Amino acid sequence: EHNRVIADHVADLCCAPTETSRSNLLNEGIPDDRIIVTGNTIVEAVESLLPPRDRRKSLMAEFGVQPGEFILSTFHRPENVDDPATLRTIIDELARIPIPVVFPVHPRTAARIQSDAELGGLAARLLMVEPMGYETFLGLAAEAAMMITDSGGVQEEASILKRPVLVVRRSTERPEVLGTFAERVEPGPAITDISAKWLAELPDLHARLALLPSPYGDGSASAKTVAAIPELISRMTS
Predict the structure, then answer these.
(1) How far apart are CA 97 and CA 135, in angstroms?
(2) What is the per-residue pLDDT across 22-77, written as a single tens digit (0 to 9) for each?
(3) Is 76 noted as a catalytic residue in this protein?
(4) Phi, psi of 10, rounded to the nearest 5 degrees
């Protein structure tokens, strides 16, 4: 974080992914003429790497799930997995959800589960799987009913794939999706309460999210960044 702030101040051009990021830079004292809003290159990454529908069908068959009838969940942050009681609460809540929960197990989380017999018993009620490649993850995420996670990147991906995401964290650095694609809760009964609410209205919820643009741009971040470079050079040499 400290290095990032230094980079903001020494950079000739700051390419902000969102208007929120632009506001943060202005609040740091970065002059407005050194900031452009480009969107986030994650939009291009997701759009280029998302498996086609046929491949997604094959993936679901491999994991034994049906489209819109499973949840994809990941947890790895210290605030959630380092305290056994907190991790037990999270996994117990996930296990109460009445549809399958596909849970790619991060090595940090796996170590905690393997060292705790009670956690292991709870985790056995989920579809615990090995960490998966990015394309596989995107393919499943695009077909999931929803996602439950503490990942920052998944929050961005949810807005591109038009899926609701429940963020289990004390705070989030992706405020742009709160109230639209995402809702934030702390570990506890809210996980199952909100999941039940979303599952009860799933077709309408998916249809509503499908109409919302991602706050991270339209997939032109790279082009906007490249186009800004000669403009910057021209301005510096004039």
Answers:
(1) 26
(2) 999 999 999 998 999 999 999 999 999 999 999 999 999 999 999 999 999 999 99
(3) yes
(4) -95, -10
